[in-house]
Amino acid sequence: MNIIRRRGWELPERAATPEHLFFNRRAFLAATGATLVAPGLASAEGAADTSDPSAHLYPAKRNEKYVLDRAITDEAINTTYNNFYEFGSAKTISRAAQALKLRPWTVKIDGMVAKPFEIGLDDLLAKMPLEERLYRHRCVEAWSMAIPWSGFPLAKLVELAQPLGSAKYLRMETFLDRAMAPGQRAVWYPWPYVEGLTIAEATNELAFLVTGAYGKPVSKSQGAPLRLAVPWKYGFKSIKSIVRFNFTDQRPNTFWEALQASEYGFWANVNPQVPHPRWSQATEELIGTGERRPTLLFNGYADYVANLYQGLEGERLWA
Question: What's the pTM?
Fold first, then answer.
């Protein structure tokens, strides 16, 4: 008998192809079991650690420059339907992610900088201007959310790092702890999770380091205590639980690119006219609503970022 063993990164068509996705709030809650658990359990799973020493920093003041064309996704949905491969390949990793230990959390800044250093997360937060921004989030699987992130511009961390003029890229790295994160025991993945941006992308005003969401410290399932939000790119670029920022003159070999370069490239900008090899990107499902909408170029942020890619027409910018 021929037994087919699907590797963890190979999504079945029914899970990834937009035509087979159907979500509304009732269906979502039923599928995740949220309608069957005691009241408050779902919100408890999505809530921040009560011992989080940064809790007093939230809610942060909203920056009204960044507005949405859709309603904010319910917190219960956002914190229980997402990818965090360190804790499993299914979307429902919120329970498993509670094993994530948030303190002590140290961030390393090294590579081509004036002086490499390490800094505790709370010391880093004390140096940064926190604010809330409403951002669209577009997954490569053709679903989307709208999220009230709190945090600070990535450009502020770049400024703190003082990179050398020869640095061209920012390489970011997630924690590596196989005892804590069972997904990291899967040997077919190139752990730790690595992502990268050009310095120009990293210093664009939209690039945002997230430390909170929904008026509180960001939940473990969303990538606490420090994750990236680059809303003009597909969601897999928004690396979670970051422990290292490395400035380099070499383009980083990112996690999904190392795993399947034909489907997940370095740039990963949103474009409705360029399909994924296995499904269309022309429309997207607004998770929790059952609504489909046309996908927007750069996820609707072209005015902010289109200039970053002038002269790069030879690059594969859209996958």
Answer: 0.86
